[in-house]
Amino acid sequence: ATDAASAGIPYNQHKAGEHGLDHGHAPPQGESVAVAPEAAASTLSEQNETAKTGQPAQAGVNAVGGGLDRVRVDSGGQVLTTNQGVPVADNQNSLKAGLRGPALLKDFILREKITHFDHERIPERIVHARGSGAHGYFECYDALTQLTCAAPFAAKGKRTPVFVRFSTVAGERGSKDTARDVRGFAIKFYTDQGNWDLVGNNIPVFFIQDAMKFPDLIHAVKPEPHHGMPQAASAHDTFWDFMSLMPESTHMIMWAMSDRAIPRSYRMMQGFGVHTFRFVNAEGESVFVKFHFSPKLGTHSQVWDEAVKVSGADPDFHRRDLWEAIDAGEYPEWEMGIQVFDQAQADSFSFDILDATKIIPEELVPVTPIGRLVLDRNPDNFFAETEQVAFCTAHVVPGIDFTNDPLLAGRIHSYVDTQISRLGGPNFHELPINAPLAPVHNNQRDGMHRQAIHRGRVAYEPNSLAGGCPFQAGAKMGFVSFPEPVTQDEVRGKPEKFAEHYNQATLFYRSQSEPEQQHIIGALTFELSKVTVPAVRRRVVAGLRNVDETLAQAVADGLGMLDLPDPLPRAIEPPKPEVEVSPALSLLARPGDGSVRTRKVALLVADGVDGGQVLALAKALIGAGVVVRMVGPHLGRVAGGGTDLDADASLDNHPSTVFDGAIVVDGEQAAAALSADGRALEFLRDTYRHAKTLMAVGAGAKVLQAAGIDTQGSVDGLLVAKTHGAKDADTFCAALALHRHFSRETNPPQV
Ligand code: HDE
Description:
Number of strands: 18
Strand content: 5-15%
GO molecular function: catalase activity; heme binding; metal ion binding
Radius of gyration: 29 Å
Domain Catalase core: 81-469
Protein name: Catalase
Bound molecules: CIS-heme D hydroxychlorin gamma-spirolactone 17R, 18S
Oligomer: single chain
Number of helices: 23
CATH superfamily of the domain at 131-232 and 254-430: Catalase core domain
Helix content: 25-40%
GO cellular component, one term: cytosol
């Protein structure tokens, strides 16, 4: 070997061949090759999408802050080094005493590489472990200085950079995106007065009223401790046992069993701050405020059967959706709104504004739009940004303050505390994604992983040796807690209004459209059908009787219960609610802007399809902003009668559940092939069953018939054309914009 080395021959000539070095596939040793920016930045599918949805995102450009630039690493054109910057000559082989001899302890290069690898993982979040994030900005419509001195609301048009992370709650880091669950909606505002974290959810209420119950709640919903099942699911005994014994959870249960808990996309769900917060203005005057975010694309959800199937087809469904939309320049946007009210109003409500299991109906206090939240840049690195971002409810800025909500109080402690073990010490605020854009100066020192190098000998205040710096900001500039008077005895207990648990659950249920109510019944029936202890099922149904008798009866019927249990006793006589029905609580209240941009549509193709027709439809749909895929029995060439096509998805790798609609075009031979393909039939059945827009042209209708879909009658969202016409794409888009055609749903499903 030594001879071979000195003769300049590689130690193992065949090894190089294996790595492709002699096929011209690998870059030459000791040099770099230029990589086109698109190729470096995107996956093939993203490039595809970009081409299909129009304007590409500018790589690495944030509309506002460039705060992370100083720590970005781009290895283009660089030589491989150790962590000490030592160039590495050979990244394939460890150092050995002879080619077949033992590896050597002094191989610091191998040891550094393996040691680092051994410690790559950090603990996942105890809740909300699974999530996806993006950068963007908040833009204020008008100055809100009369209400608050908070920096983001200081001036009309002012932009504040943000990082937002969406998440599921119960599942572990690698769990599916489409579990039935609450979604986290956490926003870090990098304001010029420091960071403000609004750590909200896509549901405006919560399961419990007091932080004391949070560990119990989470232990009940997480996989059962003896066998570690089920993953990312609330459909099990311990969750429902706890719920049935905690009537305060009833309102939240209604939301969690509704379609809100299976969103179509993070881009299509609302966000809420949940708790009542305070705005405080420069004069120290305060009002109560609730935060709302409404998606421009409207609120849309999946249906349960679809969510179940997507979790197999694409467990990263929501992560991919967010990534691809931003990558394609289709920036998700929400309108931020506030409900503002004062102490006198709060005192007049039949519920307590400190109770996080209650909403304030919009009919009582309307939502005022105050700005827009836009996400316009994907993270460069998932771990560095999305995983290491640390949201803490304790992070507020002058102008924002807490209320005495006892759930919020526990959170103010919990989030900072949890980061200390999750991120390995008290200096997590120095991680680039967490570091404020506002300068940080204080006398906190040392701790694990300290980045800042503090100069001087003074680390205390007051001091004279450093001229008194850093000095107190004082009430004019600094954060001043709202001086809410407190005069009561220390007690463990709850205020009277906290004891009413059902009025708003009833309000929510009665405000849903008929299909949404059916979905809630279906969800409750499904979840409880997974509960093995009959007494728990009965107790849940007993609670439901206090919400709505028809709901309780329908769930009992679904569970094959012979009789209804007595209603659960109520702690207090319910006060008369101010509002009996609130249309704003239905998802249908927010259909969106009517556009079909970023909707995904499958054009089913097979040999013999009318290729010209496919291309014409594809072109028109793409023109409307639809993301189109040609789905064939296999990838690649499809004979299209003179116009050959290139299928970019297959019936195996893109089942119907990852689309919002499907079209089968004309072509006898193709129709015969698809009719004989069980995958195509399943594709169409699911498209139909999940109430999505479905179109057939000419012979395409035969495939629908083969799938058992009646093409004769008039069915919402089922479009059948004898021949291809110039208006087909418009007709399809008009139906697609409605998202779903629930009138088609039957129980049990007929298709
Ligand atoms: Fe959280 N929650 N939570 N939570 N929560 C966490 O913080 C906690 C609650 C929410 O994308 C943890 O950094 C307590 C309500 C979101 O990183 C932890 C209580 C709401 C996220 C924690 C609640 C939320 C978390 C776990 C009851 C909606 C993900 C890791 C007193 C308003 C943030 C972490 C992200 C994460 C504690 C209740 C939303 C343990 C004690 C109510 C969106 O600190």
